[in-house]
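Justification of resources, computational component.

The compute hours requested in this renewal are based largely on the per-chain cost of generating structure records like the one below. Each record pairs the submitted sequence with a full structure-token output. That output is archived, and it is also reused by downstream analysis tasks.
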Amino acid sequence: MRVGAGAHASRRETPHMSDKRTASFWPLLLAALAFLVIGALYWRGLQQPLSDGLHTLELPAPPTPVAPPREADEPAAPPPAVVNPVEQSAAAEALAGDAPPADPADADQPPPPFEQALEALLGAPAFSALVVSDDLVNRIVVAIDNLPNEKLPVRLWPLRKVGGQPEVLETAGRTVLAANNASRYTAHVQALAALDMRQLAALYVREYPRFQAAYRALGYSEGYFNDRLVDVIDHLLVTPDLAVPPTLVRPKALYLYADEDLESRSLGQKVLLRIGPANAGVVKSKLRELRRLIIRRDAPPKE
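The structure output for this chain reads:
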């Protein structure tokens, strides 16, 4: 009985609840319709004048948007300052001092191009054996710019590929480069050691517009190649001098340095590590000499 009475009571509540919902529904519907009508009239008023049959009532035109006051154009950032202008270098001074007396017979004779002058400095046999003369200035600029990076395709190197394969040695449970591996680089290092850096720097200063143009062609529209060269030399000079040969690992086809710090080094620093301490010492000495010649004469000493 209680269940039936309860069911009956529930059936009585249902119409009551529906009445309440219906009663609250109509005001909402009317409000929504009113909102739509008002919105439509407002939108129509924006499109055309409203007319009540007696006169035309034009809604006021929306104000014309006023552009914010234009700020003065900000001045363009100045190009980076040139730190080591070649015309203020020791090499430029040397070039001017070494200039021979003017010979009227040679007045119309241009100096030999860079490639020919470099061949004279190195000697024809060494130049032919070591240097890729095709597009040489561009090759030098690209190589120097990429020495602080991870790699450079072999086809862009200005020097010919070193022959032979790296030799390794197993010693005390470690894999290291064999001592005689450094001999693969003997020809290159000997040619560098014999090079008169004063004459090389003077030749570089004389031909500098070609180097600068090649550097700009790489996308450095406001860069100065001589400053880049000095920065790269500084980067190479901080290559660590290792007292013992570093350990190598071979996870795949190529040998890698087991020391993560050495393996993360740049292309240029890895070259100095690979050629052996004695060869690296010669290269660093010649780089220091070149640096002294191409920086500003009044530049403070490097700390």
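Confidence is low (pLDDT under 50) at residues 1-61. The first strand starts at residue 50 and ends at 51.
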